[in-house]
Design goal:
single chain, alpha/beta, Aspartate Aminotransferase, domain 1, Aspartate Aminotransferase, domain 2, seven-stranded mixed sheet, 12 strands
């Protein structure tokens, strides 16, 4: 039987045992509705507030600035739509980048149907936004800028703190989608200087279906879900108590182990990149060579289709992604790679490998061993590949 190697941690992660243990009581024994008044309901209400304090302490903000949501996508929608609509009398111009997650891009595009104008900031060949170009795009009508902390597809870390410094003193609110970087980067909102930030727990070994939106006190934001008065009237719906408890525990563990894990991930990542670049020709590393997530390696392999590579690796017990997980079912070329200036025919050979806490050097060695023959076999069948491949 082939060795099993999971290298798609940017798509999702397994719930840690410690996190699951913290969640279990709230599925059965402590099942009270947090909005009720009796004792088992007060227990769950207190669990939510304890989790809120934990998350706020890590983000270096006030507990009242933490909103629990159903995930990163909902957090992005609440921040962007909520801030845009709350400030539309002052202006209807928004700025984001061309390489955002679709949770941001599609949300911005939906606002365009209601009269908002959105400028999509270009990036360089490494997927880094140009701060000077951003400065030139700002106008009196600009009310919101949304730039991600780290790119999910190529791993590039954006200069979020520098963008916040540029916007400081202007009447422009700043949101960052930090979903991909929360498990490995410092997400202190004091350090980053953002007005709102989206997080999702399943990217750092927490449960799926629970997220957080940090919303700075005083930032006008209209609720996008109506119903009850949960989350201080900012997000209606009975709270996912077990998920919220799991979110806080997972984030707590990720932060406590961050430096140790980042050191390990960088070593594995660099060995992975080095091995692939040395053993396979006609391959391009995508994303910034240094300012990238510690466990993230992404490539474009010429003359092959990413889906074929993925399926062949899967046959060898290796789980990776072709582009980002949220768009891997699409035949369209990656919008991120297009924005970076990578030709369409090259972008079809994109593969993303993202490492996690359970990976080791044996996993890396195994992948480097089986990868070159797969590329060689697929190129031998490709009419586009030179005979020398």
């Amino acid at each position: 039987m082939a060795r099993f190697v999971y290298m798609d941690h940017a798509a999702t992660t397994a719930v840690r045992a410690e996190v699951l243990e913290s969640m279990l009581p709230y599925f059965s024994a402590r099942y009270g509705n947090p909005s009720s008044l009796y004792s088992i309901a007060r227990e769950t209400r207190q669990a939510i507030e304890n989790a809120r304090e934990t998350v706020a302490g890590i983000l270096e903000c006030e507990p009242a600035e933490i909103i629990f949501t159903g995930g990163g996508t909902e957090s992005d929608n609440l921040a962007i739509k909520g801030i845009a609509h709350a400030n539309q009398k002052r202006g209807q111009h928004l700025v984001t980048s061309q390489v955002e997650h679709h949770a941001v891009l599609h949300t911005c595009q939906s606002l365009e149907k209601f009269g908002f104008r959105v400028t999509y900031l270009p990036v360089d060949k490494d997927a880094v936004v140009d701060i000077k170009a951003l400065e030139k795009l700002l106008e009196e009508q600009t009310t919101l800028v949304s730039i991600m902390l780290a790119n999910n597809e190529v791993g590039t870390i954006q200069p979020v703190a520098e963008i916040a410094a540029l916007l400081r003193g202007r009447r422009v609110f700043f949101h960052t989608d930090a979903v991909q970087g929360a498990g490995s980067l410092n997400i202190s909102v004091k350090r980053l200087g953002v007005d709102s930030m989206s997080l999702s727990s399943h990217k750092f070994y927490g449960p799926k279906g629970v997220g957080v939106l940090y919303l700075k006190k005083g930032v006008p934001c209209l609720s996008q879900m109506q119903g009850g008065g949960q989350e201080r009237n900012r997000r209606a719906g009975t709270e996912n108590v077990a998920g919220i408890v799991g979110f806080a525990r997972a984030l707590e563990l990720a932060v406590s182990e961050r430096e140790e894990q980042n050191l390990k991930m960088r070593g594995l990542r660099d060995a992975l990149i080095r091995g692939i670049m040395e053993k396979i020709d006609h391959v391009r590393l995508t994303g910034h060579p240094e300012e990238r997530l510690p466990g993230h390696a992404s490539f474009c392999f010429e003359f092959v289709e990413g889906e074929s590579v993925l399926l062949n690796l899967d046959a060898q017990g290796i789980c990776v992604s072709s582009g980002s997980a949220c768009t891997s079912g699409s035949l369209e070329p990656s919008h991120v790679l297009r924005a970076m200036g990578i030709p369409v025919e090259t972008s079809h050979g994109s593969i993303r490998l993202t490492l996690g806490r359970d990976n080791n050097m044996e996993d890396v060695d195994y992948l480097i061993e089986v990868f070159p023959p797969i590329i060689e076999k697929l190129r031998a069948m490709s009419p586009l590949a030179p005979k020398s491949c």
